[in-house]
Amino acid sequence: MRIAMIGSGYVGLVSGACFAQFGHDVVCVDKEAAKIERLRKGEIPIYEPGLDRLVSDNARSGRLTFSTHLPDAVGNADAVFIAVGTPTRRGDGHADLSYVYAAAAEIAQAITGYTVIVTKSTVPVGTGREVARIIRESRPAAEFDVASNPEFLREGAAIEDFMKPDRVVIGVESQRARDVMAAVYRPLNLIQTPMVFTNIETAEVTKYAGNAFLATKITFINEIADLCEKVGADVHDVARGIGLDGRIGRKFLHPGPGFGGSCFPKDTLALAYTAREANAPQTIVEQVIEVNNGRKKRMARKVIDFCGGSVAGLTIGVLGLTFKPNTDDMRDAPSLDIVPALQAAGARIVAFDPEGMEEAGRLLKDVTFTKTAYEAATGADVLVVITEWHEFRGLDPRRIKDLMRQARIVDLRNIFDPGEMRALGFTYEGVGRPA
Ligand code: UGA
Protein backbone atom coordinates (compact mmCIF):
# COMPACT_ATOMS: atom_id res chain seq x y z
CA MET A 1 0.00 0.00 0.00
CA ARG A 2 1.11 3.55 -0.67
CA ILE A 3 0.03 5.93 2.03
CA ALA A 4 0.11 9.72 2.26
CA MET A 5 -0.14 11.14 5.77
CA ILE A 6 -1.26 14.77 5.67
CA GLY A 7 -0.04 16.49 8.84
CA SER A 8 3.09 15.32 10.67
CA GLY A 9 2.11 16.23 14.20
CA TYR A 10 1.62 13.75 17.01
CA VAL A 11 -0.94 11.47 15.40
CA GLY A 12 0.39 11.86 11.86
CA LEU A 13 3.97 11.10 12.72
CA VAL A 14 3.20 8.14 14.97
CA SER A 15 0.67 6.69 12.51
CA GLY A 16 2.99 7.27 9.54
CA ALA A 17 5.95 5.61 11.23
CA CYS A 18 3.82 2.67 12.37
CA PHE A 19 2.26 2.16 8.92
CA ALA A 20 5.80 2.11 7.49
CA GLN A 21 6.69 -0.47 10.12
CA PHE A 22 3.70 -2.52 8.86
CA GLY A 23 5.55 -2.57 5.52
CA HIS A 24 3.68 0.16 3.63
CA ASP A 25 5.29 3.02 1.69
CA VAL A 26 4.49 6.17 3.63
CA VAL A 27 5.03 9.84 2.88
CA CYS A 28 4.46 12.18 5.81
CA VAL A 29 3.51 15.64 4.59
CA ASP A 30 3.57 18.89 6.50
CA LYS A 31 3.33 22.53 5.47
CA GLU A 32 5.99 23.52 7.96
CA ALA A 33 9.22 23.25 5.98
CA ALA A 34 11.40 23.48 9.09
CA LYS A 35 9.61 20.51 10.64
CA ILE A 36 10.04 18.38 7.50
CA GLU A 37 13.70 19.39 7.32
CA ARG A 38 14.25 18.27 10.91
CA LEU A 39 12.40 15.00 10.36
CA ARG A 40 14.57 14.27 7.34
CA LYS A 41 17.58 14.66 9.59
CA GLY A 42 16.04 12.21 12.02
CA GLU A 43 15.13 14.87 14.60
CA ILE A 44 11.78 14.15 16.22
CA PRO A 45 9.89 17.31 17.25
CA ILE A 46 7.99 15.57 20.09
CA TYR A 47 8.99 13.41 23.02
CA GLU A 48 7.50 9.94 22.61
CA PRO A 49 9.34 6.84 23.83
CA GLY A 50 10.57 4.69 20.92
CA LEU A 51 9.44 7.06 18.17
CA ASP A 52 12.92 8.28 17.17
CA ARG A 53 14.07 4.71 16.62
CA LEU A 54 10.96 3.75 14.66
CA VAL A 55 11.26 6.82 12.43
CA SER A 56 14.97 6.40 11.76
CA ASP A 57 14.69 2.65 11.06
CA ASN A 58 11.90 3.13 8.57
CA ALA A 59 13.46 6.21 7.01
CA ARG A 60 16.66 4.23 6.46
CA SER A 61 14.76 1.42 4.77
CA GLY A 62 13.15 3.97 2.46
CA ARG A 63 9.58 3.12 3.50
CA LEU A 64 9.10 6.39 5.36
CA THR A 65 9.79 9.71 3.66
CA PHE A 66 8.94 13.32 4.44
CA SER A 67 7.69 16.04 2.13
CA THR A 68 6.22 19.51 2.03
CA HIS A 69 4.69 18.78 -1.37
CA LEU A 70 1.18 17.41 -0.88
CA PRO A 71 0.33 16.80 -4.58
CA ASP A 72 3.17 14.30 -5.17
CA ALA A 73 2.37 12.35 -2.02
CA VAL A 74 -1.38 12.25 -2.74
CA GLY A 75 -1.01 11.53 -6.45
CA ASN A 76 0.80 8.27 -5.77
CA ALA A 77 -1.28 7.11 -2.81
CA ASP A 78 -3.86 4.34 -2.39
CA ALA A 79 -4.94 5.89 0.90
CA VAL A 80 -4.58 9.49 2.08
CA PHE A 81 -4.88 10.06 5.83
CA ILE A 82 -5.82 13.49 7.11
CA ALA A 83 -4.05 13.96 10.44
CA VAL A 84 -3.94 17.74 10.73
CA GLY A 85 -4.79 19.61 13.94
CA THR A 86 -8.36 20.18 15.10
CA PRO A 87 -7.86 22.67 17.94
CA THR A 88 -10.68 24.03 20.08
CA ARG A 89 -12.29 26.93 18.25
CA ARG A 90 -12.10 30.15 20.18
CA GLY A 91 -15.46 31.41 21.39
CA ASP A 92 -17.73 28.39 21.24
CA GLY A 93 -15.47 25.47 22.21
CA HIS A 94 -16.19 23.45 19.09
CA ALA A 95 -13.44 21.77 17.05
CA ASP A 96 -11.85 24.05 14.48
CA LEU A 97 -12.03 22.14 11.20
CA SER A 98 -10.46 24.73 8.92
CA TYR A 99 -7.23 22.71 8.56
CA VAL A 100 -9.15 19.53 7.74
CA TYR A 101 -11.22 21.22 5.05
CA ALA A 102 -8.22 23.04 3.59
CA ALA A 103 -6.42 19.69 3.34
CA ALA A 104 -9.48 18.14 1.66
CA ALA A 105 -9.52 20.89 -0.97
CA GLU A 106 -5.84 20.39 -1.73
CA ILE A 107 -6.18 16.62 -1.82
CA ALA A 108 -9.05 16.92 -4.30
CA GLN A 109 -6.78 18.60 -6.81
CA ALA A 110 -4.05 15.99 -6.46
CA ILE A 111 -5.90 12.64 -6.59
CA THR A 112 -4.99 10.32 -9.45
CA GLY A 113 -6.79 6.99 -9.79
CA TYR A 114 -9.01 5.50 -7.08
CA THR A 115 -8.03 6.87 -3.66
CA VAL A 116 -9.48 6.48 -0.18
CA ILE A 117 -9.40 9.69 1.84
CA VAL A 118 -9.37 8.88 5.54
CA THR A 119 -9.92 11.21 8.48
CA LYS A 120 -7.50 10.22 11.24
CA SER A 121 -7.71 13.43 13.25
CA THR A 122 -10.47 13.45 15.84
CA VAL A 123 -13.29 15.14 13.94
CA PRO A 124 -16.90 15.81 14.89
CA VAL A 125 -19.65 13.76 13.35
CA GLY A 126 -20.44 15.02 9.87
CA THR A 127 -16.86 15.90 8.96
CA GLY A 128 -16.28 12.84 6.76
CA ARG A 129 -19.41 13.65 4.81
CA GLU A 130 -18.26 17.28 4.38
CA VAL A 131 -14.79 16.18 3.23
CA ALA A 132 -16.48 14.04 0.55
CA ARG A 133 -18.62 16.99 -0.51
CA ILE A 134 -15.61 19.30 -0.81
CA ILE A 135 -13.72 16.81 -2.95
CA ARG A 136 -16.70 15.97 -5.14
CA GLU A 137 -17.46 19.63 -5.70
CA SER A 138 -13.98 20.63 -6.75
CA ARG A 139 -13.19 17.45 -8.76
CA PRO A 140 -16.50 15.89 -9.88
CA ALA A 141 -14.64 13.25 -11.91
CA ALA A 142 -12.30 12.13 -9.14
CA GLU A 143 -12.50 8.47 -8.21
CA PHE A 144 -12.53 8.30 -4.45
CA ASP A 145 -14.24 7.25 -1.23
CA VAL A 146 -13.97 8.74 2.21
CA ALA A 147 -13.42 6.75 5.39
CA SER A 148 -13.21 7.57 9.09
CA ASN A 149 -10.50 5.83 11.05
CA PRO A 150 -10.21 7.43 14.50
CA GLU A 151 -7.05 6.92 16.48
CA PHE A 152 -7.09 5.69 20.08
CA LEU A 153 -3.39 5.90 20.97
CA ARG A 154 -2.24 7.50 24.21
CA GLU A 155 0.70 9.85 24.42
CA GLY A 156 3.63 8.18 26.10
CA ALA A 157 2.46 4.74 24.97
CA ALA A 158 1.67 5.71 21.39
CA ILE A 159 3.64 3.09 19.51
CA GLU A 160 2.52 0.19 21.63
CA ASP A 161 -1.09 1.42 21.35
CA PHE A 162 -0.83 1.73 17.58
CA MET A 163 0.93 -1.55 16.95
CA LYS A 164 -1.19 -3.55 19.44
CA PRO A 165 -4.55 -1.78 19.61
CA ASP A 166 -7.55 -3.15 21.49
CA ARG A 167 -9.49 -2.61 18.27
CA VAL A 168 -9.48 -0.66 15.03
CA VAL A 169 -12.60 1.31 14.13
CA ILE A 170 -13.19 2.01 10.46
CA GLY A 171 -16.15 3.87 9.00
CA VAL A 172 -16.51 3.06 5.29
CA GLU A 173 -19.41 2.89 2.92
CA SER A 174 -18.20 0.94 -0.10
CA GLN A 175 -16.66 -2.49 -0.48
CA ARG A 176 -13.77 -1.00 -2.41
CA ALA A 177 -12.86 1.38 0.40
CA ARG A 178 -13.32 -1.39 2.94
CA ASP A 179 -10.86 -3.56 1.01
CA VAL A 180 -8.25 -0.78 0.96
CA MET A 181 -8.62 -0.16 4.71
CA ALA A 182 -8.48 -3.89 5.44
CA ALA A 183 -5.23 -4.06 3.45
CA VAL A 184 -3.77 -1.11 5.37
CA TYR A 185 -4.39 -2.90 8.69
CA ARG A 186 -3.76 -6.47 7.45
CA PRO A 187 -0.64 -6.96 9.65
CA LEU A 188 -2.87 -6.61 12.73
CA ASN A 189 -4.75 -9.76 11.70
CA LEU A 190 -1.73 -11.69 12.89
CA ILE A 191 -2.44 -10.57 16.44
CA GLN A 192 -6.19 -11.01 15.97
CA THR A 193 -7.07 -7.36 16.46
CA PRO A 194 -10.84 -6.86 16.25
CA MET A 195 -11.79 -4.66 13.27
CA VAL A 196 -15.01 -2.74 13.80
CA PHE A 197 -16.43 -1.69 10.44
CA THR A 198 -19.24 0.88 10.67
CA ASN A 199 -20.71 3.72 8.70
CA ILE A 200 -18.83 7.03 8.76
CA GLU A 201 -20.96 8.81 11.35
CA THR A 202 -20.70 5.85 13.72
CA ALA A 203 -16.91 5.81 13.57
CA GLU A 204 -16.85 9.55 14.26
CA VAL A 205 -19.16 9.25 17.25
CA THR A 206 -17.25 6.22 18.57
CA LYS A 207 -14.08 8.25 19.00
CA TYR A 208 -15.81 10.96 21.04
CA ALA A 209 -17.88 8.50 23.03
CA GLY A 210 -14.71 6.61 23.98
CA ASN A 211 -12.82 9.66 25.19
CA ALA A 212 -15.87 11.09 26.95
CA PHE A 213 -16.46 7.81 28.75
CA LEU A 214 -12.84 7.64 29.94
CA ALA A 215 -12.97 11.28 31.06
CA THR A 216 -16.18 10.47 32.94
CA LYS A 217 -14.57 7.46 34.60
CA ILE A 218 -11.68 9.60 35.87
CA THR A 219 -14.00 12.35 37.04
CA PHE A 220 -16.17 9.80 38.82
CA ILE A 221 -13.28 8.33 40.79
CA ASN A 222 -12.01 11.83 41.57
CA GLU A 223 -15.31 12.68 43.23
CA ILE A 224 -15.34 9.37 45.06
CA ALA A 225 -11.82 10.30 46.27
CA ASP A 226 -13.23 13.51 47.75
CA LEU A 227 -15.82 11.47 49.60
CA CYS A 228 -13.18 9.02 50.83
CA GLU A 229 -11.15 11.88 52.29
CA LYS A 230 -14.15 13.09 54.27
CA VAL A 231 -15.21 9.73 55.67
CA GLY A 232 -11.91 7.94 56.27
CA ALA A 233 -12.04 5.52 53.31
CA ASP A 234 -9.21 4.71 50.90
CA VAL A 235 -10.03 5.39 47.25
CA HIS A 236 -7.36 2.96 46.03
CA ASP A 237 -9.07 0.09 47.73
CA VAL A 238 -12.44 1.35 46.50
CA ALA A 239 -11.08 1.48 42.92
CA ARG A 240 -9.74 -2.04 43.26
CA GLY A 241 -12.92 -3.24 44.88
CA ILE A 242 -15.12 -1.93 42.09
CA GLY A 243 -12.58 -2.37 39.27
CA LEU A 244 -12.37 -6.11 39.72
CA ASP A 245 -15.97 -6.23 38.58
CA GLY A 246 -15.41 -6.97 34.90
CA ARG A 247 -18.29 -4.71 33.97
CA ILE A 248 -16.43 -1.74 35.46
CA GLY A 249 -12.77 -2.62 34.81
CA ARG A 250 -9.72 -1.49 36.74
CA LYS A 251 -8.20 0.97 34.28
CA PHE A 252 -8.68 4.74 34.42
CA LEU A 253 -9.69 4.72 38.06
CA HIS A 254 -6.62 6.54 39.37
CA PRO A 255 -7.63 9.71 41.19
CA GLY A 256 -5.56 12.82 40.65
CA PRO A 257 -5.67 16.57 40.07
CA GLY A 258 -8.07 16.23 37.11
CA PHE A 259 -7.56 15.16 33.53
CA GLY A 260 -5.65 17.31 31.07
CA GLY A 261 -3.86 16.86 27.79
CA SER A 262 -4.62 17.53 24.18
CA CYS A 263 -7.58 15.15 23.91
CA PHE A 264 -10.00 14.78 26.83
CA PRO A 265 -10.55 18.51 27.47
CA LYS A 266 -10.90 19.32 23.77
CA ASP A 267 -12.97 16.29 22.83
CA THR A 268 -15.43 16.55 25.71
CA LEU A 269 -16.04 20.19 24.77
CA ALA A 270 -16.51 19.33 21.11
CA LEU A 271 -18.88 16.47 21.91
CA ALA A 272 -20.96 18.70 24.16
CA TYR A 273 -21.14 21.25 21.34
CA THR A 274 -22.10 18.72 18.66
CA ALA A 275 -24.72 17.26 20.96
CA ARG A 276 -26.31 20.62 21.73
CA GLU A 277 -26.41 21.39 18.00
CA ALA A 278 -28.05 18.04 17.34
CA ASN A 279 -30.57 18.71 20.09
CA ALA A 280 -29.37 15.71 22.10
CA PRO A 281 -27.52 17.45 24.95
CA GLN A 282 -24.95 15.31 26.75
CA THR A 283 -25.64 16.43 30.27
CA ILE A 284 -23.23 13.93 31.82
CA VAL A 285 -20.36 15.09 29.63
CA GLU A 286 -21.19 18.74 30.35
CA GLN A 287 -21.02 18.00 34.08
CA VAL A 288 -17.72 16.17 33.62
CA ILE A 289 -16.21 19.23 31.94
CA GLU A 290 -17.37 21.50 34.72
CA VAL A 291 -16.40 19.20 37.57
CA ASN A 292 -12.94 18.63 36.08
CA ASN A 293 -12.27 22.34 35.55
CA GLY A 294 -13.35 23.02 39.11
CA ARG A 295 -11.12 20.27 40.41
CA LYS A 296 -7.99 21.61 38.72
CA LYS A 297 -8.67 24.99 40.30
CA ARG A 298 -9.37 23.44 43.72
CA MET A 299 -6.05 21.60 43.90
CA ALA A 300 -4.17 24.79 44.86
CA ARG A 301 -6.69 25.28 47.68
CA LYS A 302 -5.93 21.76 48.88
CA VAL A 303 -2.24 22.66 49.15
CA ILE A 304 -3.01 25.93 50.91
CA ASP A 305 -5.33 24.23 53.42
CA PHE A 306 -2.70 21.57 54.02
CA CYS A 307 -0.24 24.35 54.90
CA GLY A 308 -2.64 25.70 57.54
CA GLY A 309 -4.50 28.23 55.41
CA SER A 310 -1.64 30.24 53.90
CA VAL A 311 1.35 29.67 51.64
CA ALA A 312 2.44 33.32 51.69
CA GLY A 313 6.21 33.49 51.81
CA LEU A 314 6.62 29.72 51.50
CA THR A 315 8.82 27.92 48.99
CA ILE A 316 6.90 25.16 47.25
CA GLY A 317 8.78 22.41 45.43
CA VAL A 318 6.82 20.97 42.51
CA LEU A 319 7.49 17.55 41.02
CA GLY A 320 6.02 17.11 37.54
CA LEU A 321 4.42 19.70 35.27
CA THR A 322 3.28 17.82 32.14
CA PHE A 323 -0.34 16.59 31.96
CA LYS A 324 0.93 13.05 32.45
CA PRO A 325 4.26 11.19 32.47
CA ASN A 326 6.31 10.19 29.41
CA THR A 327 5.43 13.25 27.42
CA ASP A 328 6.65 16.84 27.15
CA ASP A 329 3.06 17.93 26.49
CA MET A 330 1.78 20.74 28.72
CA ARG A 331 -1.60 21.22 27.04
CA ASP A 332 -4.33 21.72 29.64
CA ALA A 333 -1.98 20.32 32.30
CA PRO A 334 -3.33 20.70 35.86
CA SER A 335 -0.02 22.40 36.76
CA LEU A 336 -1.10 25.37 34.63
CA ASP A 337 -3.92 25.99 37.11
CA ILE A 338 -2.14 24.93 40.28
CA VAL A 339 1.17 26.81 39.96
CA PRO A 340 -0.24 30.28 39.16
CA ALA A 341 -2.84 29.94 41.96
CA LEU A 342 -0.13 29.09 44.49
CA GLN A 343 1.95 32.02 43.25
CA ALA A 344 -1.05 34.32 43.56
CA ALA A 345 -1.34 33.14 47.17
CA GLY A 346 2.22 34.31 47.79
CA ALA A 347 4.30 31.16 47.30
CA ARG A 348 7.62 30.86 45.49
CA ILE A 349 7.67 27.89 43.09
CA VAL A 350 10.71 25.70 42.44
CA ALA A 351 9.90 22.95 39.96
CA PHE A 352 11.33 19.94 38.20
CA ASP A 353 9.93 17.91 35.31
CA PRO A 354 11.95 15.36 33.31
CA GLU A 355 10.71 16.52 29.87
CA GLY A 356 8.29 19.41 30.24
CA MET A 357 10.35 22.30 31.57
CA GLU A 358 11.11 23.91 28.23
CA GLU A 359 7.43 24.25 27.36
CA ALA A 360 6.50 25.01 30.98
CA GLY A 361 9.00 27.87 30.89
CA ARG A 362 6.97 29.46 28.12
CA LEU A 363 3.64 29.00 29.89
CA LEU A 364 4.47 29.69 33.53
CA LYS A 365 5.98 32.87 34.90
CA ASP A 366 8.51 33.29 37.73
CA VAL A 367 9.16 29.59 38.29
CA THR A 368 12.66 28.43 39.21
CA PHE A 369 13.40 25.22 37.29
CA THR A 370 15.90 22.73 38.65
CA LYS A 371 17.98 19.96 37.14
CA THR A 372 16.82 17.22 39.51
CA ALA A 373 13.87 16.32 41.70
CA TYR A 374 16.08 16.54 44.78
CA GLU A 375 17.03 20.10 43.91
CA ALA A 376 13.33 21.02 43.72
CA ALA A 377 12.91 19.66 47.25
CA THR A 378 15.89 21.55 48.61
CA GLY A 379 14.82 24.22 51.07
CA ALA A 380 11.13 23.68 50.28
CA ASP A 381 8.42 24.16 52.91
CA VAL A 382 6.17 21.72 51.10
CA LEU A 383 6.62 19.40 48.13
CA VAL A 384 3.72 18.95 45.70
CA VAL A 385 3.62 16.01 43.29
CA ILE A 386 1.58 16.98 40.24
CA THR A 387 2.67 14.37 37.66
CA GLU A 388 3.50 10.73 38.42
CA TRP A 389 6.77 10.37 36.50
CA HIS A 390 8.18 6.93 37.15
CA GLU A 391 11.49 8.30 38.39
CA PHE A 392 9.71 10.10 41.27
CA ARG A 393 8.57 6.78 42.70
CA GLY A 394 12.20 5.77 43.13
CA LEU A 395 13.23 8.90 45.04
CA ASP A 396 14.77 8.32 48.47
CA PRO A 397 12.30 9.87 50.94
CA ARG A 398 14.95 10.13 53.67
CA ARG A 399 17.13 12.23 51.43
CA ILE A 400 14.14 14.38 50.47
CA LYS A 401 13.32 14.92 54.11
CA ASP A 402 16.89 16.02 54.88
CA LEU A 403 16.83 18.49 52.00
CA MET A 404 13.48 20.12 52.80
CA ARG A 405 13.00 22.98 55.22
CA GLN A 406 9.77 21.40 56.43
CA ALA A 407 9.01 17.73 55.73
CA ARG A 408 5.60 18.13 54.12
CA ILE A 409 4.25 16.49 50.98
CA VAL A 410 1.02 16.89 49.05
CA ASP A 411 0.96 13.94 46.68
CA LEU A 412 -1.69 14.64 44.04
CA ARG A 413 -0.96 11.31 42.28
CA ASN A 414 -0.63 9.03 45.28
CA ILE A 415 2.84 7.83 44.27
CA PHE A 416 4.08 7.47 47.86
CA ASP A 417 2.88 5.13 50.57
CA PRO A 418 1.13 7.28 53.21
CA GLY A 419 2.07 5.00 56.13
CA GLU A 420 5.72 4.89 55.13
CA MET A 421 5.93 8.64 54.62
CA ARG A 422 4.33 9.38 57.99
CA ALA A 423 6.58 6.84 59.70
CA LEU A 424 9.57 8.72 58.26
CA GLY A 425 8.28 11.90 59.85
CA PHE A 426 6.59 13.58 56.90
CA THR A 427 3.34 15.41 57.20
CA TYR A 428 1.73 13.78 54.19
CA GLU A 429 -1.52 14.11 52.26
CA GLY A 430 -2.53 12.17 49.15
CA VAL A 431 -5.79 12.10 47.22
CA GLY A 432 -8.73 10.17 48.64
CA ARG A 433 -6.81 8.40 51.36
CA PRO A 434 -7.43 8.48 55.10
CA ALA A 435 -5.53 11.17 57.04
C1 UGA B 1 -6.36 9.87 25.52
C2 UGA B 1 -6.97 8.47 25.39
O1 UGA B 1 -6.55 7.66 26.50
C3 UGA B 1 -6.54 7.81 24.08
O2 UGA B 1 -7.18 6.55 23.95
C4 UGA B 1 -6.93 8.72 22.92
O3 UGA B 1 -6.50 8.20 21.68
C5 UGA B 1 -6.28 10.07 23.12
O4 UGA B 1 -6.73 10.63 24.36
C6 UGA B 1 -6.69 10.93 21.95
O5 UGA B 1 -7.88 11.19 21.79
O6 UGA B 1 -5.84 11.26 21.12
P1 UGA B 1 -3.97 10.86 26.28
O7 UGA B 1 -4.64 12.20 26.29
O8 UGA B 1 -2.66 10.72 25.61
O9 UGA B 1 -4.95 9.75 25.60
O10 UGA B 1 -3.72 10.46 27.78
P2 UGA B 1 -4.40 9.54 28.90
O11 UGA B 1 -3.42 8.55 29.33
O12 UGA B 1 -5.71 9.05 28.48
O13 UGA B 1 -4.58 10.61 30.09
C7 UGA B 1 -5.42 11.75 29.97
C8 UGA B 1 -5.53 12.47 31.28
O14 UGA B 1 -6.26 11.70 32.22
C9 UGA B 1 -4.19 12.76 31.95
O15 UGA B 1 -4.21 14.07 32.49
C10 UGA B 1 -4.10 11.72 33.04
O16 UGA B 1 -3.31 12.12 34.12
C11 UGA B 1 -5.55 11.59 33.43
N1 UGA B 1 -5.87 10.29 34.07
C12 UGA B 1 -5.86 9.14 33.33
C13 UGA B 1 -6.21 10.25 35.42
O17 UGA B 1 -6.24 11.28 36.11
N2 UGA B 1 -6.55 9.04 35.97
C14 UGA B 1 -6.55 7.89 35.26
O18 UGA B 1 -6.88 6.84 35.84
C15 UGA B 1 -6.18 7.94 33.91
Structural class: alpha/beta
Instruction: Kindly report the spatial arrangement of strands forming the biggest sheet.
Output: 3-2-1-4-5-6
Percent strand equals: 5-15%
CATH architectural name of the largest domain = 3-Layer(aba) Sandwich
Into how many domains do the coordinates divide? 2
Number of helices: 18
Q: What is the CATH topology descriptor of the largest domain?
A: Rossmann fold
Please outline the major beta sheet: 6 strands, parallel
Specify the overall morphology.
Answer: elongated
- Rg of Cα set: 23 Å
- Poorly predicted sequence stretches spanning 5 or more consecutive residues: none
Q: Which small molecules are bound? A: uridine-5'-diphosphate-glucuronic acid
How far apart lie the N and C ends?
A: 58 Å
Task: Give helix % range.
Answer: 40-55%
* CATH class wording of the largest domain: Alpha Beta
Going by CATH, the homologous superfamily of the largest domain would be NAD(P)-binding Rossmann-like Domain
Catalytic activity: UDP-alpha-D-glucose + 2 NAD(+) + H2O = UDP-alpha-D-glucuronate + 2 NADH + 3 H(+)
EC number: 1.1.1.22
Family: Belongs to the UDP-glucose/GDP-mannose dehydrogenase family.
InterPro entries: UDP-Glc/GDP-Man, UDP-Glc/GDP-Man_DH_C, UDP-Glc/GDP-Man_DH_dimer, UDP-Glc/GDP-Man_DH_N, UDPglc_DH_bac
